[in-house]
Every structure is written in structure tokens, then in C-alpha cells.
Amino acid sequence: MLVVEDNELNLKLFSDLLRAHGFVVEPVRDGREAVERARAFAPDLVVMDIQMPHVTGYELILQLKADAALRAIPVMAVTAYAGREDEERLRAAGADAYVSKPITLARFMAAVTELT
Q1: How far apart are CA 103 and CA 71, in angstroms?
Q2: What's the whole-model pTM score?
Q3: pLDDT bucket at 80, cuts 50 / 70 / 90
Q4: Is residue 4 within 8 Å of residue 31, measured between CB atoms?
Q5: Checking DSSP bridges between strand 75-79 and strand 46-49, what pairing results, if any?
């Protein structure tokens, strides 16, 4: 599982939670590395923060879905944006699930379970 999150506390929380549920996790702090790391790691799921410096999660979802080798990997968008339009835009870009922050652990893991 690839976790792309620039916030150190959220990255640790998501990674630790996923590891506790038996997943192998590859954390990515800088979104500019996400597509390359996805190619190298071949994850079963990408957990993607949307609001990041340098490159947004929205842009990364578009890049992942445009890549023939990566487009089948499900993407779960995790974002503080909670508007209906935001969810629709992210799903249109290719996000398979949408979880708004602040997250509850149960809702986060339910979304992960649905996609894996």
C-alpha cells in the first residue's frame, strides 16, 4: 500500500494503522515521488492526500490513471475538502474512494477494506 501524505503525523497514523491490519506500507512524504514509487512498489492501493505542496493529489490521481501500468491500482482520496463538488471532481479524475478529514479510524479502514 502506498500512502502519499505530506503531514508527518497523518503519514504515521495511516501507515501504522494499515500495518496493524497486516498491510505492507510504503510511505511517501513528497507527492513529486509518488508516481515513481508506485511504479517501483506496485501497491494494491494508493492512499492519497489531496492538498500537498509541489503537486496536488488531484494531479497525481490524473497521472496514475493516465499510466497504463498504474491505472488499475485503486486510489483512495483523503482530504480536508468536504464539499460535494470536491468529491465529484476527485472521482471524475479517477479516485475510487473518498474519505474526508478529520477521519475516523473505522471509516478509513472500511474504505480500505472495500478497495483491497
Answers
A1: 26
A2: 0.94
A3: confident
A4: yes
A5: parallel
